[in-house]
UniProtKB/TrEMBL annotation:
Residues 1-23 form the signal peptide. GO terms for biological process: alkane catabolic process. It comes from Thioclava pacifica DSM 10166. It holds the Pfam family Lipoprotein_15. Keywords: Signal. This is Lipoprotein. It comes from the Bacteria. Coiled coil: none annotated. The lineage of its organism: Bacteria, Pseudomonadati, Pseudomonadota, Alphaproteobacteria, Rhodobacterales. The keyword Signal applies.
Amino acid sequence: MTFRSLTLPLAFALSLPAALAMAAPTMTAASGKGNILTDDAGMTLYIFDKDANSRSACNGDCATKWPPLAASTGDKPTGDYAIIARDDGTLQWSYKGKPLYAWFKDAKPGDLTGDGVNGVWHLARP
């Protein structure tokens, strides 16, 4: 009886990381500008005003400066998170219909240097 009660939780715990890897790789963090979304490494995520209808308008050089939050074919959308197809065929995470991006000038978790760039880039908020 004791062996079974230890085995089941252990089996569940071992399968948990695999299940989490398939969910949206974002977290909520407190910042000096309120709660924001971050990637799983703690880097700030942004949204782009020119994106519409769950479609990214940031391609080419834009996507070099604003790397899309990549999704893979094995990822599973959950809640307000969805996966969209980009013009180049890659997959990207979105939140409430807004594609999510990082900013190439953010060097460490907690940096918010992309907020307000050209008046069209903003912090992604929960």
